[in-house]
Amino acid sequence: MNGHVHLEESDMYESDGKLFLTEAFNVIMEEILHKGTDSEEKVCEWKDPDQLRALLDLDLREHGESHKQLLQRVRDVARYSVKTCHPRFFNQLFAGVDYHALTGRLLTETLNTSQYTYEVAPVFVLMEEEVLCKLRSLVGWSEGDGIFCPGGSMSNMYAMNVARYWAFPQVKTQGLWATPRMAIFTSQQGHYSMKKAAAFLGIGTDNVFIVQVDESGSMRPEDLEAKIVQAKSQDAVPFFVNATAGTTVQGAFDPLNRIADISERNGMWMHVDAAWGGSVLFSKKHKHLVAGIERANSVTWNPHKMLLAGLQCSVVLFRDTTQDKFYDTSLDTGDKSIQCGRKVDCLKLWLMWKAIGTHGLSERVEKAFALARYLMHLLDVVVQCCTGPFVNVCFWFIPPSLRRKENSADYQESLSKVAPVIKERMIKRGTMMVGYQPMDGHVNFFRMVVVSPQLTTKDMDFFLDEIEDLGKDL
C-alpha cells in the first residue's frame, strides 16, 4: 500500500545498489584512474560556475533517479573535476596517486568505522599506534604520543592546545581567566593556521608575534630573541614557538637547533610545523634539512603531501607522554581528540608503507628532489625568484616583450600581470595546473611543486615549453 513503510522487508534497493557500485567503480577506474593519469588528457575540463551548475543539475528532488541517470552523474562528477592524479597537476602540495594507498582509502570507506575505541575499530586502533610509533622513531623519539588529525591546521592547533595545558595546567578547568596574556612566535612565512589556532583557542591573533625571515625564507633566530623581549615588555608570557620545516611557498626550513636553544633558554614549548617538509626524514641524503627536529616538543607532519598517502593523512606527534594527563593512553583513543567520531586515516599510509617499504618511500622523496634540481637547471629563459632547498621551484616567466627591460619604470607592474594571464590560458587549455602568488615585495611568480613519482624529466621539459608557449605573445 502507498504511504506505508514495509518494516518486515529489507531494503529493496540492495541488489540494485550493489550493481550500481560495480558499474560506478568501472567508471572510476576508466575516467579517473585511466584517463586522469594520462598526460595526453586534460587535467581539468574547465567550466565557469554558472555553466557547471547547469551541467551538473545539482537540485535535490522529491523522487529518486534511474540507474542510468545516476551513472551519468558519476561520469559528470569525474569529467568536470580536477584530476589531481594527473602527472601535470602541480598546483598544490599534494599530487599523483599511489594505488596501494588508494586501496587503503577504499577499504577505510567501505568498513566505515570510527577510530575511537578498540571495540569498534580493533584493527585500526592497533594500526594507528604502530604507524605513529614508526613516524616518531623517524623524528628521533623512542617514546611519546600522537594522533591522526583532519589536516595540518588541526594538528598545529592540537599542539598549541597541549602546549598551553603544559604551561598553564589550570586553563583546562578554570579557563582563560586563570592565565596571563600569552605570546606565540612564528615566522612571516609560517602557515596561517597559527593565527587561526590562536583565535580559536582564545589566545588572540594580536598575541602571535611575527618573526622576520632571511632571503631564503628561514626564520632569523636573532629576531626571534628580539620578539621574545618585545612580548615580555608588553607583559605577555612567551610559551610557544612554531618553527616551520618546509614553508608552503618557498619550501624554506627554519634553523631548528638555534630555535631549540632559544626555546630551552626561555622555557617555551617548541613545535615544528613539518606538514610539508617532514617527509625528508625518510631520506638519508636530505634529512639534514630538519637537523634538530628531535629537540622539539611536538611535530606536525602530513604524509598526504609528499608521500602520496591521499587526503587526508596528517599527524601531530609529541615527544613526551607525560605532558597531558587528562586522557588515558590505553587503546581507547577517543579521549585524546576534540572529535568524537574520527575517520580512520592510518590504513592508507600503512598499506602503502607495507607495499614499498621505508626504502621505497625514501626513493620517492629523493626522486622529487632530483626532478626539482633538474627543473632549476632548465630555468635560464626565466628568472628564478626565491627558490629554497626543497621541491618548491619559484620563478617568473619573462615574456619576450619584457626581456632586458628590468630597468624600465613599469617593469614590475607589467611582470605582475604575466602569471595570472598564463594561468587563465593554461586552465582553459587544460594541459596542466600550477599556482602563482606575490610575496613580500615580490610581484606574482609561479610556484611549481614537484611531488608525484609518476613524473619524469620529460614532464619538466613539457612544463617549461608550455609556459613559454602560453606566454610568448604577452
UniProtKB/TrEMBL annotation:
Cofactor(s) the protein needs: pyridoxal 5'-phosphate
Subunit-level organization: Homodimer.
Pfam families: Pyridoxal_deC
Organism: Cyprinus carpio carpio
Highest taxon, organism lineage: Eukaryota
GO molecular function terms attached to this record: pyridoxal phosphate binding; sulfinoalanine decarboxylase activity
SUPFAM superfamilies in the record: PLP-dependent transferases (SSF53383)
Gene3D superfamilies: 3.90.1150.170, Type I PLP-dependent aspartate aminotransferase-like (Major domain)
Record-level GO BP terms: carboxylic acid metabolic process; taurine biosynthetic process
InterPro entries the UniProt entry points to: PyrdxlP-dep_de-COase, PyrdxlP-dep_Trfase, PyrdxlP-dep_Trfase_major, Pyridoxal-P_BS
Gene Ontology cellular-component terms listed: cytoplasm
PANTHER family tied to this protein: CYSTEINE SULFINIC ACID DECARBOXYLASE (PTHR45677:SF8), GLUTAMATE DECARBOXYLASE-RELATED (PTHR45677)
Taxonomic classification: Eukaryota, Metazoa, Chordata, Craniata, Vertebrata
Residues the record lists as N6-(pyridoxal phosphate)lysine modifications: K305
Annotated family: Belongs to the group II decarboxylase family.
Annotated keywords: Decarboxylase, Lyase, Pyridoxal phosphate
Full protein name: Cysteine sulfinic acid decarboxylase
Keyword Transit peptide assigned: no
Keyword Lyase applies: yes
